[in-house]
Amino acid sequence: SINSVVKANPTAGFSIINAPITSSGGSIAHGLNASPSMIIVKNRDTSSTNWVVWHEALGTNGYLLLNSSAAKATSSNLFDGTSSSTFTVGSGFTSSGTNDHICYCFAPVANYSKFGSYTGNSSSDGTFVYTGFKPAWILLKRTDSGIRTWEIHDTARSPGNVSENNLIPNVSNAESSGSARLDILSNGFKLRTSSNGINNGNIIYAAFAENPFSSNGGLAR
Known about the structure:
Blueprint: E1 5-9, E2 14-20, E3 26-29, E4 38-43, E5 52-55, E6 62-65, E7 73-74, E8 79-82, E9 86-89, E10 100-106, E11 113-119, E12 128-130, E13 135-142, E14 150-154, E15 182-185, E16 188-191, E17 202-209
Antiparallel strand pairs: 1-2, 2-10, 3-9, 4-5, 4-10, 5-6, 6-7, 8-9, 11-17, 12-16, 13-14, 13-17, 15-16
């Protein structure tokens, strides 16, 4: 019901949408032919608005803020459901100025991307998370605590285990290093820290593969 401009690559499970979200909200086509597992929305014209993140592990009305360490919150005025063709938003994204919003939608693709959650065990012999591929890039966020930041790991900055170098997207800090965080394995990742941030409580993740190609040379659905 919202007349948007969509650039979509269903094979890679990713689309970018410019959506004029008004106070009435509505449904937005995402072009992925599969329900998104993660959506990020930002008002393009107002600097004071947040980067709002929905992840399937948060529930229909749950959300996080990419520019904040805040815990999960809920609101039916932001995200209100997804389908294989659209996602629904409410009036909570509107503000003064124009209504143009940029939306990034991600749907899982076998052997390429996965979005999920796990429960930490607060041990250096930490939780193992199965993805089915070796991740090249992992985004983590504890959802039940507002004192923990987002955290990014990748194999470009930490090509070997244990991965120590991490970036925190909600602050301007340089990368943090010097303490064990996790092992990046052929079929997932395993926590190697008792940190409250990524190995305690409820944590969501988004992971993308180091070698995302199937035997026939194309991305595997």
